[in-house]
């Protein structure tokens, strides 16, 4: 249930009629109290003194009345870790015998990945990751006063769920906005990005992993394919290509690869 | 004197987190913003981000004048950036002056000695656009204006918005003011001889350029002479429309 998305600049006042209010029946029934709570996403802050909700970044204000949440959608600058994000990091070094220092974006402080946060890891069988190795991990702790912490295993099930070391392949940088679109469950319909589908349809065989920190990992047996996939994504990002333009670009790319 | 409308391009530098190129009133400035990144151990502050402003002149290497401009901008910008959100962090703002109305290649020694307040609006506006392009969290945006108080032949004082180097040479005093998008005065730097009335008038003129330009268009404002009117471009509206078209392009996929 999305309606119009007004453009906001930092410090703008938000039209109070846009802020979803809890429905009467929701507020009354105890078990749906969780749904009645308004949730603020990235780019908004709540001023405790006045109770106002103020944007902090430029973008479009998106209000989801059904989920009772609102956030500011933007292409994003630099990645700031937040809990639950899946990211691609590069191992810097192993420290203290029980954790890895992992870099999520250049010139930022390292994230911490404990040796035991891998599937099936124990004191005896810990993963051996050399400096430079890539990991696909989830952010388990993000706090502005502390370095972020990562995990490659679901704490509830003890399963990796696809997370873990990324062997081979190469990493391409994209904007945070494109990474978010690629990670959408229905990226073609919702995110208007279908470039990977088109490349697959053309018969290229490759594997990808997408990190919310603006990294895309691509692996393929053919180096040509690997570069084509990465460049196609970067081109889609830089030139803001629509689905039709993505299809045309992929066609052109395939032709020039032969 | 009248100037062409301000021009800006966003995200011009592919490697920086955010960047902007802005030109107005003879000044062209390119800014790049990187951050929040990790501050060096010796600079880091435990509870807030460090804002690092670097000003590079169009010709030659930076000197005392650039350091002074940096300190002015640093204190203003750290007021509007949410620095407490990024403890131990660093937000780096690099401002490269590309061209100025005066010729930087002659009389460098003389120019070096004096502070040029008229460049502050261009630097500030470029920095704000680059910060917006980098999506650095901020409390508000800011706009700036420079006003020169020029004594006319008939003894009357004239307020010149965005003065040219010639205006500054003949001016009694020059004032640079910065306002946030909440109409709060963020910075007031003045140079030369002036009275409290002069300052009040300069403030009024700058306030109208930075905060009330929309009201002026509606014809409610009588403060500014007709010939000055055109020079006061609506800065807040300019920043908004520039960002709006950038965001619309970025979010073309959003239906």
Name of the CATH class of chain B: Alpha Beta
CATH superfamily of chain B: GHMP Kinase, N-terminal domain
Largest interface: A-B, 36 and 42 residues
CATH architecture of chain B, by name, is: 2-Layer Sandwich
pLDDT < 50 stretches of chain B? 216-231
CATH class of the largest domain in chain A: Alpha Beta
Number of spatially distinct domains of chain B: 1
How do the strands and helices of this protein lay out in sequence?
The complex is a heterodimer of chains A (258) and B (255).
Chain A: E1 7-8, H1 24-28, H2 33-36, E2 39-40, E3 44-46, E4 53-55, E5 59-64, E6 69-73, E7 86-95, E8 99-103, E9 111-114, E10 134-143, E11 146-151, E12 164-166, E13 170-173, H3 176-183, H4 195-201, E14 207-211, E15 215-219, H5 223-238, H6 243-257
Parallel strand pairs in A: 2-6
Antiparallel strand pairs in A: 1-5, 3-4, 5-6, 7-8, 7-10, 8-9, 10-11, 10-12, 13-15, 14-15
Helix pairs in contact in A: 5-6
Chain B: E1 7-10, E2 18-24, E3 27-38, E4 50-56, H1 64-80, E5 89-99, H2 108-113, H3 120-133, E6 142-151, E7 157-161, H4 165-170, E8 171-180, E9 185-192, H5 196-211, H6 213-217, H7 226-229, H8 235-250
Parallel strand pairs in B: 4-5
Antiparallel strand pairs in B: 1-2, 2-3, 3-5, 6-7, 6-8, 8-9
């Amino acid at each position: 249930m999305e309606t119009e998305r007004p453009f906001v600049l930092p410090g703008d006042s938000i039209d109070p009629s846009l802020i979803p209010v809890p429905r009467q029946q929701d507020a009354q029934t105890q078990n749906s109290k969780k749904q009645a709570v308004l949730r603020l996403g990235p780019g908004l802050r709540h001023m405790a003194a006045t109770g106002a909700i103020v944007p902090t970044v430029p973008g479009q204000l998106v209000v989801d009345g059904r989920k009772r949440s609102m956030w500011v959608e933007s292409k994003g600058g630099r990645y700031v870790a937040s809990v639950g994000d899946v990211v691609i990091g590069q191992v810097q070094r192993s420290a203290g015998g029980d954790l890895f220092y992992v870099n999520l974006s250049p010139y930022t402080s390292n994230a911490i990945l404990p040796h035991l946060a891998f599937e099936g890891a124990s004191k005896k069988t810990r993963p051996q990751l050399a400096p430079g190795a890539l990991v696909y991990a989830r952010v388990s702790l993000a706090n502005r006063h502390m370095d972020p912490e990562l995990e490659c295993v679901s704490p509830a099930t003890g399963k990796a769920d696809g997370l873990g070391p990324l062997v081979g392949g190469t990493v391409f940088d994209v904007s945070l906005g494109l990474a978010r679109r690629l990670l959408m469950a229905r990226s073609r319909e919702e995110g208007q990005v279908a470039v990977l589908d088109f490349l697959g349809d053309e018969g290229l065989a490759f594997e990808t992993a997408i990190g919310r920190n603006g990294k895309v990992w691509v692996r393929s047996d053919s180096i040509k394919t690997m570069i084509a996939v990465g460049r196609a994504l970067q081109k889609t990002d830089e030139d803001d290509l629509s689905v039709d333009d993505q299809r045309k670009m992929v066609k052109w790319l395939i032709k020039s690869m032969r | 004197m009248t100037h062409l409308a301000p021009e800006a391009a966003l995200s011009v530098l592919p490697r920086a987190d955010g960047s902007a190129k802005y030109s107005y009133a003879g000044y062209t400035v390119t800014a790049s913003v990187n951050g929040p990144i990790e501050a060096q151990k010796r600079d880091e502050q435990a509870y807030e981000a460090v804002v690092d402003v670097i000003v590079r002149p169009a010709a030659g290497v930076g000197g005392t004048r650039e350091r002074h401009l940096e300190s002015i901008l640093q204190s203003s910008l750290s007021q509007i950036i949410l620095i407490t959100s990024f403890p131990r962090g660093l937000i780096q703002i690099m401002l490269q002056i590309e061209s100025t109305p005066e010729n930087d290649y002659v009389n460098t020694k003389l120019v070096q000695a004096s502070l040029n307040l008229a460049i502050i609006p261009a630097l500030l506006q470029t920095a704000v656009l680059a910060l917006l392009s980098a999506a650095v969290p901020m409390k508000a945006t800011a706009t700036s204006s420079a006003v020169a108080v020029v004594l006319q032949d008939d003894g009357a004082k004239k307020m010149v918005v965005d003065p040219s180097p010639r205006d500054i040479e003949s001016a009694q005093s020059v004032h640079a003011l910065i306002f946030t998008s909440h109409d709060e005065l963020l910075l007031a730097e003045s140079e030369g001889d002036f009275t409290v009335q002069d300052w009040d008038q300069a403030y009024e003129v700058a306030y109208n350029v930075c905060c009330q330009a929309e009201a002026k268009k509606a014809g409610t404002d009588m403060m500014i002479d007709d010939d000055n009117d055109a020079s006061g471009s609506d800065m807040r509206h300019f920043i908004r429309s520039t960002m709006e078209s950038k965001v619309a392009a970025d979010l073309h996929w959003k239906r």
